[in-house]
C-alpha cells in the first residue's frame, strides 16, 4: 500500500476534529499529558482551536509555520493525519502530533511513508533538521520504526526529560508541547547528512593540515 | 472610547472584533488600520490636527514625556496647535534615568511649562511582585509596559504615552517552500497598543497610546516623508530599523530639537527587564507575545487608495 500526503485545508477542519475525536475515543485517556491548548471545556471547541492553528488560510502572516497533512492510501481514503511545526530559530521542523487508527504492523509502513514525504517537503524547503519527542519507554520502538532514516540522517537523543519536569530550555519546552508529561520523555534530533558535515577527525583519524608557512 | 480616530487602529482575537482579551496560546489575532477618508496634509499639519482631536476628546489630558524625541515632537505639535497640555514625567531613584529626562526637564523649564514629576522605584515595583499583577491583569509581557500601567493606574486621570510609526526590516517566510524575502514592515507589538485597550476596558481610566498613529492620514503623511520612502524602498543601505533615521525624519516637522543619543530610559534596569522576561510564564500569563506586521509599501498603497489594511497573525 502506498501513501501520499496532502495539506489539510481550512474547510476540512470539522472532518479533522471528527477524525481526532474518533481516535481519542479509543485511546487510554491517561496516555497524554494535559496540553495547554485552550481553557475551553467543550472538546469540540478545544480541538477545533488546536487544529485550526495547523490549517490557517494564507491571509495569516506565518500561516504555514504549523501545517497539518492528511495521509491518503492508494484508494484515496484518509489513513492518518499529521501536524508539523516549523521553527524560526534554525532551519528545522518537528512532528507535533499524529493521528491514526492503525496500530502495530499496519502502522509502521504508514508512519515511515509519512516521514519520507515530510522529509522531502522540508528538505526541499532547506530545513535539514527535525525533532521527534516520545516517551522514553518507547525508545526501542521508535528507534526501530525510524531505522531507515539513519542512512540519510544523523540521529541521537538530545536529552531525556524526567517525568513531571519541565525543561529550562525554551526550545525544548516548546518541543515537549509546553506540557508537563506524566512519563519520562526523549527528544531525538535528526540532522541530514550532507557534504562537509563530517568532522575531519571523525572515526578517530586526525587529518594533519599541511601548512607551508 | 476612541483610542484613535474612529478607532481606525483596532486589535482583536480570533474572529470576534469585540474580543480584546487573549484566552489561549493558539488564539489568532488581527490588527486593522483604517482607510484615509480625506486628502492627506503634511506630517506637521497632521500631527497638529491629531493634537487638536485628542484634546477635544480629552480636554484634561496629560502627556507623559519620556525624554525621547517622539514625545518631544508630540509636545511641540500640541503647542503649535495652540494647546498647552498637562505634562508629567517619571523619575527613578538615584537619578537613574536623569540622563534621559534631565535635558527634557531643562527644556520645559526654559519654555516655562509646568510639569509633574512622578517618582517611581522600578526595583521596589519588581521586588513587590506588583509587576505580576500588571502582567496578568492587563495581559502585559514587558517590564516597561508593566511599570507604565502601574503608573497609569495610580495617576487615574486621562493620559497619553507617545507611540511611534515603528518600521523595521524583517524576513517573511513561506515555511512550505522555504522562500523568504526581506521587507520593510510597519510593526505593532501585542504588548503595546493592545495592552492599553485592555487597560481602558478593565480600569475605566482613559489612557491613550496613539499619537503618530492616531489617524490613517497622519500615518500616510509619515510614510510619505522622503527619508521614510527611501527607507522602506531600501534606498538607504545598511538600515534594519527606522530608529537611526529618526532625527532626519523628524527634522521635516520644522521644530528645533536637541540632537541626542537613543535611550529607552531603563538602561539601569535591564536586569529587571530580563528577569521579567525570564519569569513571565510563572505569572500565569502563558502566552507567547506576538507582533503585528504589515508590509510598509503595501500599507502606504492601501492608505493612498483608501483601503483598510488588516493583518492576521497565526
Description:
The complex is a heterodimer of chains A (213) and B (314). By secondary structure, chain A is of the alpha+beta class. Chain A has a single domain, classed as Gcn5-related N-acetyltransferase (GNAT) (Aminopeptidase, 3-Layer(aba) Sandwich), CATH 3.40.630. Chain A has five helices and eight strands; from the N terminus they run E-H-H-E-E-E-E-H-E-H-E-H-E. Chain A has a seven-stranded mixed sheet with strand order 1-3-4-5-6-8-7. In chain A, helix 3 links the parallel strand 5 and strand 6 (129-135). In chain A, helix 1 packs across helix 2. The model of chain A has no long low-confidence stretch (mean pLDDT 88). Chain B is of the alpha/beta class and 314 residues long. Chain B has one domain (5-313). Chain B has helices at 43-57, 69-80, 98-111, 122-128, 130-138, 143-155, 193-203, 216-223, 226-232, 246-250, 270-279, 296-304, and strands spanning 10-13, 29-33, 62-65, 86-91, 116-119, 159-161, 167-173, 180-189, 207-208, 291-295, 309-313. In chain B, strand 4 (86-91), helix 3 and strand 5 (116-119) form a beta-alpha-beta unit. In chain B, helix 1 runs antiparallel to helix 8 (216-223) and helix 8 crosses helix 12 (296-304). At the A-B interface, helix 2 and strand 2 of A face strand 11 of B.
